[in-house]
Amino acid sequence: MTVQNQEEINRLKNLVQDLLDESKKQGSTSAEAGLSVDNGLSVTARLGEVETIEHHCDQGLSITVYIGKKKGSASTNDFSSNSIKETVKAACSIASFSSEDEFAGLPDQERLATEFPDLDRNHPWNLDVDTAIDLTVECEDAARSYHADINNSEGASIDSHQGIRVLGNTLGFLQGYQATRHSMGCSVLGERDGNMQRDYWYSISRKAEKLESAKDIGMMAAERTIKRLGARSLTTRQSPVLYSAEVASGLIGSLIGAISGGSLYRKSSFLLDALDTQILPGFIRIHEQPHLKMALGSSVYDSEGVSTIARDIVSEGVLQGYVLASYSARKLGMQSTGNAGGVHNLTVDSGDNDFAAMLKQLDTGLLVTELMGQGVNRVTGDYSRGASGFWVENGQIQYPVEEITIAGNLKDMYKNIVSVGNDVDYRGNIRTGSILIEQMAIAGE
Amino acid sequence: MDTLNQVKQSILTPYGMQEKDIDKIMDSMLSVPVDNADIYFQSSHFESWSLEGGIVKEGSHSIEQGAGVRVVSGDKTGFAYSDRIELSVLLEAANNVKAIARQGQNTQNKLETIPKWNRYYESVNPLKSLADQEKIDLLRKIDIETRKLDSRIEEVMVSLVGVHEKILVANQDGSLVADIRPLTRMSVSVILEENGKREQGSMGGGARTEYSYFLDQDKALEYGKEAVRQAIVNLDAVDAPAGNMTVVLGPGWPGILLHEAIGHGLEGDFNRKGTSAFSNKVGERVASDLCTVVDDGTLEGRRGSLNIDDEGTPTEKTVLIEKGILKGYMQDKLNARLMGVKSTGNGRRESYAHLPMPRMTNTYMLPGSHNPVEIIKSVKKGLYAKNFGGGQVDITSGKFVFSASEAYLIEDGKITCPVKGATLIGNGPEVLTKVSMVGDDLELDAGVGTCGKEGQSVPVGVGQPTIKIDGLTVGGTNV
To answer: Which of A194, A263, B159, B174 is most deeply buried (CB count within 10 A of its CB)?
Structure first.
């Protein structure tokens, strides 16, 4: 159980209630309001000395009003009572001009969260500037002294943030919580035979004690940079491709985009009408775990106040459900899945393969560790992105590669997944290990 | 009323702040030895309206204001900001950031006076330039007219965005400068379906002016036509080729090549730190002698243009590459001072809550002498890329990508069939050395570009004439 500043949360809840009351007074039939306050410290050190010290202090409030089935939104960072009146007025004015939309409105009352378990998200770090400087210097030192070829740095940094979020609507929902987020990262450059490379590493957690050590982060950043030195292009070819865990999450992110309500009702998805069909190989399960303690993507309710649910999105490769908020659900004649604002700790179940076993299974092919550019057509699934990584033969890394592209169509790529590793990257909201794809087109020199 | 008084009245007066209060904050920051100190006040009004499914289903409005205080000592920066423009709050912020001075060494730089500057856009408020009902009527008209263009249209999405921003910069030399910056943007996206196959097309534009810009010569309707045209082309697209080949880039928005391949690599901070593939290359050849590239913040009404940058320095037309030779970098105050040069007016920040850094404005290549038809004719086999999505660069390795959204094969000097979108990848310091023809058809983009760097977004522009590159890797699937 973590301590929450209940007094401050209550003060902000009252502000949200004021917003809701004001919107009724100004003629809205229903409304939803949100508010956030964040405080933080960021410190960067470069070449052994502090480079920047930034004190963060952000706040904002937003209101969405409905006049019947007409909608308007407004936001501000000024919390004065006059500003609240003006913001509500702006939202109501917009609603008066927008069109009737039969699907618009607050979530269904019975879907709103009614139980609020503590998800252990609040772990303030009493970090003073001097300690932060010491840690960043230590982190960067570890990177710079790792290898003689490390010859320059973009620095090491620490960010520590604590914030309060409050959400309320005129159906009587009014909740607030406090949460923290801390991270430490480092980026260094290396040079060999005129070839200059850069890479980075970072660690992120809700609790400072859970961060990787400054030294480990620095050493990892340096190791990654050193491994890239001497990178060359490849000739154009077809080959199996292994996405390392940190880039594999993007592959799953594109899938989530394609089964999200907004893409579906606009028919701008390459996975239309895919419910209950096989979109991935039979061994793959993808599920949401919204209530994991201390996790970065955990939430009891979504950004509309709808209960989040632990559920399978893909089971045995078959799509079990879409990713919907209230509006998109109504457009599709379905129910909200508690995903207004996105998914929560989306997890791809992994097999028994560690990273070495995944390399072995790749045998001869491309290991991708970084992707560049957008290059994904969400309507057709056509995929073409810049890549760098390593050429692998007989399960052994041979040499670093760069200035190549990898291309395919996401529909085929998903079906041609060979295996998922257990080398899971827990730093983001999508948790997956490395992903091996049977074949893709590689363009190079 | 002049701009300065107008801005003071709308940012300071409502919060009971006066010019002497700015002096108090500045005095506090200058009580320690510093090279640079500034206070940046900003007030920004933003609105957006969007249409889909034939109805204007939502709009939003936002007001943000705040102030950031910064102290620079040597190469070290202390920064704090607040959304409360109040003397006591900003004095506390000033007190917090002063701590950086004990960490740094002051180089006792002499102060520069700010020269007079020109204006490249009017102090207008786009949000008030049309009545709300007129904005909605405009969106509806585009929807109706665009749907008439093709029976295969499934969906039309239109959005209209306006920003009215006021900034006030106080510098340690006692100068106080202000700017009022209008910004508008409109975009139209369509989805077409034919025999179960779907494709999208989108087009937009914008400028630092009023919404009437979109009514002039039915510009907004042209966006709709162009979006439909692109979607139709892509319905027939075949697999794109894979591998290294001759690439001809069309005029205008394909200038994103310059932004990614060389622009970021020529920003002062990366070069001061020696982390760019272009570090220490001033005076060296980095492009063929057909290439002259500038960054120009002084173009009339352009999305990337600024009267003064966010440090109060007037913007310039900065020559980056002249006839293939690297001439210089884009600078803000901090990096210019540390590199012993002058700021080029490229110190930009997303908002008061972000630190300024060297950023591009409008980056483009000057026209050459070739007729674009002649350029296509000269290619036996290659790719003609006309439209692009976004791009990205690794400034250290120099590798960059940009993704074509409309491209065609060139066969025997003729543009033949359209190919699916593909990412192009190259090496920044190398790619312009392979430019073998430059067209006489310089175009600037339509005004939709947004550049992201270290988490900060700012509006930018790009442009170029048709150019031919003898060898760039095309990331298609047709191996």
So the answer is: A263
Spatial CA neighbour of A35 closest among A95, A72, A77, A90 = A77
- What CATH number does residue A209 fall under? 3.30.2290.10
Q: Could you tell me if A218 and A307 lie in one domain?
A: no
Strands laid side by side in the B362-365 sheet: B325-326, B317-322, B293-296, B362-365, B461-464, B443-444
Residue range(s) defining the domain that contains residue A89: 3-228
Q: Tell me: do A71 and A154 sit in the same domain.
A: yes
Single out the residue in A202, A228, A254 at which a domain terminates. A228
Across the interface, do B423 and A197 touch by the CB < 8 Å criterion?
no
Same domain, A143 and A236: no
Contact of B277 with chain A, judged by CB distance below 8 Å, is answered with yes
Task: Mark yes or no for CB contact B57/A86 under 8 Å.
Answer: no
Q: How far is B255 from chain A (nearest CA, A)?
A: 16
A160 and A181 both lie in a single domain? yes
Tens digit of pLDDT at every position of chain A (445 positions): 456 789 999 999 999 999 999 999 999 999 999 999 999 999 999 999 999 999 999 999 999 999 999 999 999 999 999 999 999 999 999 999 999 999 999 999 999 999 999 999 999 999 999 999 999 999 999 999 999 999 999 999 999 999 999 999 999 999 999 999 999 999 999 999 989 999 999 999 999 999 999 999 999 999 999 999 999 999 999 999 999 999 999 999 999 999 999 999 999 999 999 999 999 999 999 999 999 999 999 999 999 999 999 999 999 999 999 999 999 999 999 999 999 999 999 999 998 999 999 999 999 999 999 999 989 999 999 999 999 999 999 999 999 999 999 999 999 999 999 999 999 999 999 999 999 999 999 999 9
Contacts of A41 in chain B (CB under 8 A): none
Residue A9 falls in which region: left (phi positive, over 0), alpha (psi -120 to 50) or beta: alpha
Nearest chain A residue to B235, by CA: A380
Mutation target to probe the B interface, by most B beta carbons within 10 A, among A98, A195, A366 is: A98
ipTM: 0.94
Q: Which of A228, A259, A275 is the last residue of a domain?
A: A228
Tell me: do A206 and A238 sit in the same domain: no
Top residue of B71, B403, B423 to mutate, by most chain A CBs within 10 Å, is B423
A69 and A84 together in one domain: yes
Nearest CA in chain B to A239: B479
Rounded CA-CA distance B243/B245 in Å is 6
Count, residues in chain A: 445
Spatial distance between the Cα atoms of A353 and B273, rounded to a whole number of angstroms: 41
Number of domains in chain A: 2
Q: Mutate one of B63, B138, B238 to test the A interface: name it (highest A CB count within 10 A).
A: B63
Helix extents (H) in A163-244: 214-228
Q: What is the pTM of this model?
A: 0.95
Q: Would you call B399 and A372 a contact, using CB atoms and an 8 Å cutoff?
A: yes
Residues A67, A9 within the same domain: yes
B161/B126 Cα distance (integer angstroms): 9
Per CB-CB distance under 8 Å, the chain B contacts of A233 are 473
Nearest to A55 among B63, B96, B243 (CB): B96
**Contact (CB<8Å) B275/A152:** yes
Distances in whole angstroms, Cα of residue A442 to Cα of each of A237, B242, B321, B417 = 5, 7, 33, 22
Q: Specify whether A187 is located in the same domain as A199.
A: yes
CB atoms within 10 A of CB B93: 26
Cβ of A29: how many Cβ atoms within 10 Å? Answer: 16
- What is the DSSP-derived secondary structure letter of residue A212? P
Distance from CA of B127 to the nearest CA of A (A): 12
Nearest CA in chain A to B45: A76
For chain A, say whether B233 makes contact (Cβ under 8 Å): no
Distance, CA of B199 to CA of B153 (rounded, Å) = 10
Task: Compare CB distances from B425 to A98, A195, A403 and report the shortest one's residue.
Answer: A403
- Taking CA A158 as the corner, what is the angle to CA A154 and CA A161, rounded to the nearest 5 degrees? 140
